[in-house]
Amino acid sequence: MELIAETEITCPHCGGSFPLEIDTSQAEQSIIEDCTVCCRPIALTIRCRPGVVVNLVTVDV
C-alpha cells in the first residue's frame, strides 16, 4: 500500500494552488508549509487513513 498521497493545497493568503505530498501513516498531523506561489506560511491540519487524506484544513499563520 502506498502511504504517500498527493493532494492539492489552496493558499489562504494568495489563493494559489499547489500539490503537496502527505505521509498518511499518521492518523492526524499538524504541519506548517510555505506556499509555493507567494512563499507565506500555511498551517495545515490533516486527518488521514493509510493511503488517503480524509480531511485537510488550511489556516494562514
How would you characterize this protein structure?
- The chain is mainly β and 61 residues long.
- It has one domain.
- It is built from no helices and five strands.
- The protein has strands spanning 4-10, 17-23, 28-34, 41-49, 52-60.
- The protein has a three-stranded antiparallel β-sheet, with no helix packed on it.
- Strand 3 (28-34) and strand 4 (41-49) form a beta hairpin.
- The radius of gyration is 11 Å and the shape is elongated.
- The model has no long low-confidence stretch (mean pLDDT 95).
- Strands of the widest sheet, in order across it, are 3-4-5
How many domain modules?
Answer: 1
Rg (C-alpha, Å):
11 Å
Share of helix, binned:
under 10%
Count of DSSP H/I helices: 0
Number of strands: 5
Please, what is the average pLDDT? 95
Structural class: mainly beta
Proportion in β-strands: over 45%
Give unreliable regions as ranges: none
Give the termini separation.
Answer: 33 Å
SSE series: EEEEE
Q: How would a crystallographer describe the biggest sheet?
A: 3 strands, antiparallel
User: Tell me, what's the shape?
Assistant: elongated
SSE blueprint and pairings:
Blueprint: E1 4-10, E2 17-23, E3 28-34, E4 41-49, E5 52-60
Antiparallel strand pairs: 1-2, 3-4, 4-5
Brief characterization of the structure:
This protein has one domain. 0% of the residues lie in helices and 64% in strands.
